[in-house]
Amino acid sequence: MDMTVLLIWIFKILNFFIIILTGVAYYTLAERKFAGFIQDRPGPNRAGIFGLLQPLADGIKFLTKEEVIPANVSKGMYLLAPAISMTCAILAWSIIPFGGTIPLPDFMVGILGTESLDLQVANPDSGILILMAISGLAVYGIMIAGWASNNKYSLLGGIRATAQMISYEIPLGLSLVAIIIMTGSLRLTDVNDMQKGLWNIFTPPGFIGFFIFLVAIFAETNRMPFDLAEAESELVVGFHTEYGAFKFALFFLAEYMNMITMSCITALLFFGGYNVPFGILEGSVYQPILGVGIFLVKVLFFAFFFIWVRWTVPRFRYDQLMKIGWKKLIPWSLFNVFLAASYILFFKDSWWLFFN
Amino acid sequence: MNEYTIPQILFYFFGTISVIAALGVILNRNPITAAVLLVLTFFSLSAIYAIMGATFIATMQILVYAGAIMVLVVFVLMLLSLRTEAISHVWEYPLKKIYLFFTVGILLLFLAMGVSIGVPHAKVPTVGVDATTGAYEYNLMDVQGKATEFSAKGNIAVVGASTFIDYLLPFEMISILLLVAVIGAVILAKKKLEQQ
Questions:
Q1: Alpha-carbon span A155 to A345, nearest angstrom
Q2: Which of A21, A353, B16, B157 registers the highest number of CB atoms within 10 A of its CB?
Q3: Using a CB-CB distance cutoff of 8 angstroms, which residues of chain B are in contact with residue A162?
């Protein structure tokens, strides 16, 4: 194995790790600030200017608290659960492309021995399938946490979360099938390149698929209005009732990390990814860098959208949640797959002419 | 001192994990721990597939077995309130157990011998898949009898092409079998209204 390739991998992995950890820390602050804005109060504003040091203060507090392990838990599983949650949340970031091939500045060329860098750790053939697999594994963390805590509220929360995530994986997968049919490839960079002329959201199957996908990701990440797993008025806080100190922080960070991941996937699959619209800087070496900026703006919008929905919409009832998932979203997404197939066969060219 | 390549080291690593985890599935007395160890076994198997370059099968292994089937198994295990299984009745019929162990062991030994000596067995014809490049070349006759060149690159494209061109009939038969199984499961799980 070439040393340069290894060095580039280590460089990319370390950078993504630092970026996502910082991003998540400030996402939690953003959530509290926007919550304050929506409820007409200042939000956290004591640590640093505008409360900007709040994530650091939270981190120190989580680390210095006593690690309590309750008496009747099954210890191995109890400690394994937050680790599984966090691992799955980080793992998804290994295949998300953040931009095309960007040129490196001169001093980096000397260190890394390459002149350009793909902003993606791995680009496997089956990118979307791997994302689905990782999001399917995230349920283990919640399930094992609920079971291992030996607490009725935790168990109920775990069971609710499991049933919900299994149910909503089906419409999520089917809405992705429509995108796969339109792309003809599972590679995430191919999905992005295909949207160079027209974003998926402006095509009929992409438009329907987006709303199905949006509802499904709220359920997958256990967020309002589908956060029945931790409905605090019914279940204390659900599956992580028995977790304290840094073990709780791991669940907390994993949830926010999943939200950022899902925002990235939404921007990538439906909103044109890192393509630069209107041919700005066409042919220039700086276009990919502008593309990264455009991608980040889209991701930040969807990250904000998660917060916006949480503090606006009330929680669903559990039977309503199941009814929406099985009786509305799955038939609609099956119809959407059919629509995508007929779109690609019969009226794709005329639709593209209409927009270009 | 033998020289090991990176794939070999990885294979021994994941192979050891999968064997230990599989033994743990059988020997562990706690059903949930056993189920989680089974997930670990699936993971190491999928890693071995990935080492061989079959990334699609590796992904499907995790997506289907670890992500779907085992989630349901653990879910059901959680709903039943299970106590730790008593290990005492493992040694109830020692003669029977030894007899069974012996038979399975002999069969496995024959299998291993067959693999290592090279017993000729029915080989699946690999139509048109180039094993070294992973590309799929196929000459397809269209409706007018004109030959059309067809080539697919990449793991998924190869699996898709060979499923829907070479092995279309077996694939459809499996689909019908699955449909029958689904209908059977629905009928078994359905409430019997006339008996209430």
A1: 48
A2: B157
A3: 71, 75, 78
Distance to chain A for B110, nearest Cα, Å: 37
* SS3 readout for A159-203: HHHHHHHHHHHHHHHHHHHHHHHHHCCCCHHHHHHHCCCCCHHHC
Flag whether residue B55 sits within 8 Å of chain A, measured between CB atoms: yes
Peptide bond before A288: cis, by omega within 30 degrees of 0? no
Q: Is B79 within 8 Å of A147 when comparing Cβ atoms?
A: no
B135 close to B152: Cβ distance less than 8 angstroms: yes
Residue whose tokens read 């399975």: B104
pTM: 0.82
CB contact under 8 A, A137 and B66: yes
Express each pLDDT in B84-138 by its tens digit.
555 556 566 778 878 888 899 999 888 887 766 665 544 444 555 555 555 555 5
**Beta-bridge partner residues of B150:** B138
Q: Which of residues 108-137 of A touch B (CB under 8 A)?
A: 124-126, 129-130, 132-133, 136-137
- Cβ separation of B55 and A125 shorter than 8 Å? yes
Q: What is the rounded distance in angstroms from the CA atom of residue A328 to the CA atom of residue A55?
A: 40
Is B86 in the A-facing interface, judged by CB distances under 8 Å?
no
Q: Is A35 exposed, middle or buried (0-12, 13-18, 19+ CB in 10 A)?
A: middle
Which 3 state secondary structure label does DSSP give A117?
Answer: strand
Distance between start and end Cα atoms, chain A: 45
